[in-house]
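Appendix B. Raw example, untouched.
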Amino acid sequence: MMRPARLAVGVVSAGRVGSVLGAALARAGHTVVAASGLSAASLARAERLLPDVPLLPPDETVRRADLVLLALPDDALAGMVRGLVATESLRPGQIVVHTSGAQGIDVLAPAAEAGALPLALHPVMTFTGREEDLERLATCSIGVTATADDDAAWNVGEALAVEMGAEPVRIPDSARALYHAALTHGANHLMTLVADCAEVLREAGIEHSERLVAPLLSAALDNVLRHGDRALTGPVARGDVGTVRKHLEVLADRAPDVAPAYRALAKRTVARSLAAGVLQDTAAAKELNDFLDEPAEGHQDQ
């Protein structure tokens, strides 16, 4: 794989992602020449992860860099790129990388028109902005997107991912939105689901709920990643209508905010269990679906 030359890196901005990736690039032998950041948290993070790196405004940071790392919120990215072009901060030959999962390389079109090489590098992990994130990079993948017919750009993106310690995975630009939706659905909604689970257990008066569910949830995640839908278990997969009904009754009474999510996921589990052949009792499946549809229909009639 092509190894990029040692590069002067400018980080815009020194948030959780930018500071960690800047530190990873520095560890790989590149030089972080400047970073931008305004908040007290960004300043403290930069001091910890990017020691002795000057903190400058974005335009000055970019002018010093061969590799521009735009680690910005999704909605701020397009405006920053336009601003950097308007201030003539970018120059031909620079590599301009953004870390947004939702965006492809179209958002970097103004930079490309100015002669820069556009890349999207999205680390598939959550960030704390602390040193342990550098070690987590070694176990994660980075979604790499470049211009479809630019082999050199794809190679540069993959090489940078490897240098940061991650595994590069090519994501076509046309797939970025669906790719990010899938990751968000899995990671963020999983966090919500687990937090709801622990909260309902606490509502039931059960102490140390996190310790109680950790082995169960870890095994469930491992099983589904290894075996897919064949790993489905529980009352829905068994067609136990009475148990599901009892669950929804107690949730409606004790955890009404959680009941709609349980209902929606149970209905989705019916579909997946049927398709996988785990739930073979079609009569039970129909009864489950009819029951799970009842509140939504009743609400619409009100």
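End of appendix B.
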